[in-house]
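Not sure how to ask, but would you mind making up any protein sequence you like and the tokens describing how it folds?
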Amino acid sequence: PNASPKIPQRKMAVRLCLLGLALGVSVVGGTELTFEMGPHVEQCFHETIEESSLVTVEYQVIYGGHMDIDVDIKMTPLHSGTEVIFQETKSETGSHTFNAKATGEYAFCFSNAMSTVAHKTVYVDVVVGNDDPLAADAAKHHQTFTQVETSMINNHDALRRVIDLQTHHRMREANHRYTAEFMNERVQLVSAAEALMLVILSICQIVYLKSLFSSRPNKW
């Protein structure tokens, strides 16, 4: 008699476990990296994407030069030529979202061709797929969640936003650190030049004063 109330609880526990696994394994395909580019260099990252997939590209120049790069997103379908989807010149930061028109290879290219000596560090994040697959699947099957499941999904979304904010603050911290190191290097060079000038002036003054008390004729 006491076992019957446990059956719904077990079903609820199993459902929560399955939801937790779905939250854990519903990983959206993506690439997040930071790389360096030398002058007159173009780097491309290629990925095969299925038709109708949602693609989001975010990029930012962390430091280097005038903080700008050229960005190109190209599509090479299986049975046709290359098509430019997105193009931006001398951009510091940006984001672009699109749906893949056809299955094929997509190239995300970043160019530093306009720079002659400047090296640049670039952050790029490419996300392929729906950023909220659980909500999309629930809407597709007209599924409703319990209060506990809704709370878990909200926590999952909140943690994802926390990750995005952490990435944003890491980029700002790297940018500010580079600015501080750049200014520190310039201050040290100026300080060294001033110290050298003081030493030279001191030596010249000593030599001049010494010549005033010399028995030899003063050539100045």
User: Anything to note?
Assistant: Residues 147-212 form the longest helix (66 residues). Residues 1-8, 10-27 have pLDDT under 50 and may be disordered. The helical segments are 6-25, 133-141, 147-212. Strands lie at 29-37, 42-49, 54-63, 69-77, 83-91, 93-99, 104-111, 120-128.
